[in-house]
């Protein structure tokens, strides 16, 4: 008797799709001001976890320094990356300003918390060289 097949918990399923999409995001504070402390980073992570969950995504990893944060997000194909980023940055900016007004005002002014730019890198699965090799080896129909 063969061993029972165990589903991979990292591969998620939708009604008509099976997916495993991850993105590495980096957000930088406006003017690279060092606005984060341990307390504000912890709260930022909580806020971003909630935002991800509300969009059907999962925040797998989070860390940061005084002027930027790194996120690893597992997200569904139905969620546009720009929507994810705009929600994460918008909600976290608003809530951090509400919850830590004096601290945030000391480092940032106007209504800006994050720099308008961000880094997004796809990650997970096989290296691109392996996928390229696999595709090259597929036979074309005659």
Automatic annotation (TrEMBL):
GO terms for MF? DNA binding; transposase activity
Which stretches make up the Transposase IS200-like domain?
Answer: 18-138
Q: Which SUPFAM superfamilies match?
A: Transposase IS200-like
Q: Name one Pfam family in it.
A: Y1_Tnp
Could you tell me which Gene3D superfamilies the record lists for this protein?
Transposase IS200-like
Q: GO biological process: any one?
A: DNA transposition
PANTHER family from the UniProt entry: TRANSPOSASE FOR INSERTION SEQUENCE ELEMENT IS200
> What's this protein's name?
IS200/IS605 family transposase
């Amino acid at each position: 008797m063969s061993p029972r097949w165990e589903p991979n918990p990292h591969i998620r399923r939708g009604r008509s799709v099976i997916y495993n999409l991850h993105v590495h995001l980096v957000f930088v504070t406006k003017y690279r001001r060092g606005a984060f402390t341990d307390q504000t980073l912890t709260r930022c992570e909580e806020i971003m976890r909630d935002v991800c969950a509300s969009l059907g995504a999962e925040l797998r990893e989070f860390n940061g320094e005084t002027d930027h944060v790194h996120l690893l997000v597992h997200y569904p194909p139905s969620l546009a990356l720009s929507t994810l980023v705009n929600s994460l940055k918008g909600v976290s900016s608003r809530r951090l300003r509400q919850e830590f007004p004096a601290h945030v005002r000391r480092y940032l002014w106007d209504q800006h918390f994050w720099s308008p730019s961000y880094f997004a890198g796809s990650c997970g699965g096989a290296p691109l060289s392996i996928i390229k090799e696999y595709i090259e080896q597929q036979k074309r129909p005659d």
